[in-house]
Amino acid sequence: MALDSHRNRMPPESVAWMPPPLFELAAGWGNELHLKSMLLSSPKPSRDLPCPFPRKVFSMRSFLLTVCRFSMAAWVGGAALFVVTSVIEQSGPNFDSEIRDHLALMRFPFYYGFGFSLLGVGLLSGLAACGHPSVSKKIATAFFACASLAMILMVVDYVWIYQPLVELITPAGSAKSAEFVTYHKASKYINEIDLTLCLVAALAICWPLGTQSQAKTDSQ
Question: Which domain holds residue 157?
């Protein structure tokens, strides 16, 4: 009888489950909404960001852009140092005409060798790095225009000005004719223009990015 009375007091299966209080449901919904908002607002990892070209290509272009910037900056600095020391040697009273000719014959081949090498590497690496997000179209256009013109002027100076000058000062200490003065002035002016173009090209390719461009590059 006690067992039957205990069974009668047990609730049926249809009413065995009781809904939780309303405040518990509200708390659960609030936590779920907060979690969703955190997931939506959290930034995605950089590997999930879109990239216009493969990462290996991007890394290679970044390396080539670094080579281009280094080559242009190195040539501008080296050429400026060469010009300053050459002017001091040629205009100072410490060396006679023969020693000046010897210095010119020894040093200028290295000047043109480094110039063609560094400027050529800068042009080729800059061309291969085209499309890098760090360089806009305007900057790329200014760089290639100035660097290409500087290379053309260097070729003109070496072939049509420097080579005749070498013949005029060989052997060293020879008397300087009016033709030598003309070639010397032409070499001075064309080298000044060439160095200015290289400086503008180096400034263009090394110019820092804006905020938006920097954020785009970092994301890639």
Answer: 53-219
134/59 Cα distance (integer angstroms): 12
Its sign, for the CA torsion 125, 130, 134, 138, is: positive
- In-domain check, residue 22: no
Q: Quick: pLDDT tens for 195-217.
A: 999 999 999 999 987 644 544 54
Evaluate whether 186 touches 161 at the Cβ level (below 8 Å): yes
Contact 121, 71 (CB under 8 A): yes
**Residue pair 212/75 in contact by the 8 Å Cβ criterion:** no
CA distances from 122 to 18, 168, 175, 201 (A): 78, 33, 39, 10
Is residue 21 assigned to a domain?
A: no
26, part of any domain: no
Domain count, the chain: 1
Alpha-carbon distance 3 to 6, whole Å? 5
Residue 34 lies in a domain: no
Degrees (nearest 5) of the Cα angle 177, 182, 184?
A: 95
pLDDT in tens, 20-38: 554 454 445 555 555 455 5
Handedness of CA 161, 163, 164, 168 (dihedral sign): positive
SS3 (DSSP) at 175 = coil
